[in-house]
Amino acid sequence: MKIFLDTANLESIKKFNDMGLLDGITTNPSLLSKEGGDPASMMKSITDIINGDVSLEVVSTNYDGMIQEGRDLRKYGSNVVVKVPMTPDGLKACKTLTSEGIPVNVTLIFSANQALLAAKSGAKYVSPFIGRLDDIGQNGMSLIEDIAKIFPMYDFETEILVASIRHPIHVVEAAKIGADVVTLPPAVLDKMLRHPLTDIGLKNFLADWEKLKEQNLGTK
Length: 220
Prior knowledge:
By secondary structure, the protein is α/β, with parallel strands linked by helices. It is built from 11 helices and 8 strands.
C-alpha cells in the first residue's frame, strides 16, 4: 500500500520523505492557505521534492475553469495529478484531462456510486473521505470495502486513495481491505512511528549498555 502525506508543509514533507516513507502528496486549497506564503512557489517546491504523484486541486467549479487550471497545474511537474471535485463538471473535466494525458484524482467521494462513476470517467485515483462519513454516524471503512469489491470486477485501473484518515487504526483497516493508497496528515503518520514499548525497550537497552561499560571500567 502506498502512503501519501496530506499536507503542504514543506518541513513535514522533507522529514518523512527523508525516511523513505512517502510515495506521494495530496494537497488542497485549505492546506495551502494554512501554510501561507506564495502557493505557486509551494506547489513547485513540493513537486521538486517528491518523486511520486502530487495531487494539486483546482478551485474552479465549472468545466472550462477546471480544464484551464488543470493544464496550468500540470506545468508544475510531470508528477502532478489534477484533483477535481465529484461533480458533473468535475467528471467531464476528468474525461478531457485524462484524454490529454493528464492524470486526475476525483475527490470528495462519499458513495460507491460516485466512485464507480469517477472510475468510468477515467480517474487515476478516487478519494473516498472516510473520516467525514464517520463524523455523521456512517461507517467510512465499509465504503472502502464496497469500492474494493467493485473495481476488480470490471478491470478498472483506478486506484482507491483513502482520504480523511483520522488515526492509525484507519490505516491498518484500509490495508487489510486492500486499498491502493492512504493519504495521511503528518500527525497521524507520526503516531504510526511510535509505540510506548519501543521507547521502553530502547531505554532499557541503553541503561544496560551503560551498566556494562561501568562494570568493565571497574575491572581495570
